[in-house]
Design brief:
Helices cover 74% and strands 0% of the residues. The protein is mainly alpha-helical.
């Protein structure tokens, strides 16, 4: 697939990854929740947009992949004696959600583009984690996830391009990317993906 997403406008601070490595078990619990929510989001879009048949197969595939990632992370957690935790609000995702417009068409476009940015940020951070981990098996796992998340970032933009023109998609994606870059600079670092 040709690259459809745009590059992130601000890189994560390289020191961010130290918080993750020092609190890796807590990060795993957050990571599991992120994968579960990503799977749920894809399926909720199938339910919300049954009139958009061009994207249903991609959404189903995304939901399955994210659920598989959840299962893989949960397996890692079990091996390490880490329990699932109650989901907490994600400040990053919540702030991006506030930027989404109302109205069925605008909301549909924004939801796809915000999802693309979240996946691209996940890819960047999984790469950082893969490079920082000393355990070769864990490092490989996060390297693979990095590639899959980057692919998902493209898939969401590809979906948008089925129903909107490039002139509608890319200026709005640029606006949202600028907002996302601003959020990244202000978030408190936690043992979480975002």
């Amino acid at each position: 697939m040709a690259k459809k997403s745009i590059g992130l406008l601000r890189a994560t601070d390289p020191d961010w990854v130290h918080v993750i490595i020092k609190n890796f078990d807590a990060f795993l619990a957050d990571h599991a929740n992120c994968e579960r929510k990503a799977s749920s989001l894809a399926m909720s879009m199938v339910v919300r947009y049954p009139d958009r048949p061009k994207i249903i197969p991609a959404l189903v595939e995304l939901a399955q992949e994210e659920l598989e990632h959840f299962a893989q992370v949960y397996e890692l957690m079990e091996k390490r004696g880490v329990s699932l935790v109650k989901d907490e609000p994600d400040p990053y995702v919540n702030q991006l959600g506030k930027k989404m417009r109302h109205g069925r068409e605008d909301r549909f476009l924004d939801q796809l583009l915000v999802a693309s940015l979240i996946e691209c940020r996940g890819a960047e951070r999984f790469r950082m984690i893969a490079e920082a981990l000393e355990d070769p098996e864990l490092s490989h796992f996060y390297k693979v996830l990095c590639g899959v998340e980057a692919k998902h970032g493209n898939v969401f933009v590809e979906m948008a391009l089925h129903y909107f023109t490039e002139e509608d998609v890319y200026p709005r994606l640029q606006e949202l990317a600028e907002f996302e870059a601003d959020i990244i600079t202000k978030l408190e670092w936690r043992a979480s993906l975002h």
